[in-house]
Amino acid sequence: MVGSVLLERMMEEKDFDGSFEATFFTTSNVGGQGPNVGQSSPPLVDAFSIADLSAMDVVVSCQGGDYTNEVHPKLRQSGWKGYWIDAASALRMKDDAIIVLDPVNRAMIDKGLQDGIRDYVGGNCTVSLMLMALAGLFEKGWVEWMTSMTYQAASGAGAKNMRELVLQMEKLGAVDPALKNDRANILDLDRAITKVYQEDSFPKENFGAPLAGALIPWIDKAMENGQTKEEWKGIAETNKILGTSQTIPIDGQCVRIGAMRCHSQAITIKLKQDVPMDQIEAAIASHNQWVRVIPNTKESTVAELSPAVVNGKLIVPVGRLRKMTLGPEYLTCFTVGDQLLWGAAEPVRRMLKIVLC
Ligand code: HSE
Fold first, then answer.
1. C or N terminus of the chain, fewer CB within 10 Å?
2. Residue 334 has pLDDT above 90, yes or no
3. What are phi and psi of 87, to 5 degrees?
4. What pLDDT score does 40 carry?
5. Among this protein's residues, is 125 annotated catalytic?
6. Which residues contact 320 (CB under 8 A, 6 or more apart)?
């Protein structure tokens, strides 16, 4: 799915402009027809063939961590010196890999290229989306610590999960139409929905639980300290991308909700000092061309700060910005971003462009 979004974005941006020759690899359809990207399209090549991969100057993979873990070490052991660019977590925290989010850490990427770093990895989606929204505050050095409570879309779990979410919605929508009538007793409708959740045929093979009309407050594996791995990535990857000399504490709870492909986050920031709101908004808004500061009004929030609006777009709105009643150094905000674009494919696409320049 990330690969499809990456290809769509590359076509939109006319990246296949003839300045490089693309070879398409596959793990399942060797010899099949490659995608039509406006270049000649030779048959798909075996993605496990180290000989074929090592003929490339740059390998871009959207296959996920298992593929990277299997192929990357063999490719490097074969003496391959090309650039490896992927979006999997397998290499992210290695010392000789850079997590790429160029609107935030372009200087680190440029230094890495100069220093001969060869592995460039897209970050965790919640981390990348949070930084696209709030890097202006980190850049000013104002953040003492942060918590992020996430509302993560089905797409983060994969294509099968997106389908399962819609199947779950269909099951809920298929209760007796008489119960949905305005004059019917609402508690009868509620009881019917609860009963659907308990049916053996309720589709939950992928999520392991109902998500439609519900939520799942657990994402990824358990860590030893009670965090989930998704929650641990918040502190580990953010600090690595920012290249902080002193770790900025970040923690929170990561929750799967029934959105299709936009992750949202409610954030609390402890500022190092009482920074006025106009300066905060200016720092956020001026950081990059995709972030949007949304006025803290009901009309603007409902109209502009929702997965339904941001789906499929590169903009990263940040709203509900205000000082908390806890004190003038406590800032809260809410942000939404497309998990498949800035959360996955876009940093990888842009890294490829940087390497090709
Ligand atoms: N781990 C994320 C999620 C997606 O499950 O939503 C990948 O960054």
1. C
2. yes
3. -120, 15
4. 78
5. yes
6. 266, 294, 296, 301, 305, 332, 333, 334
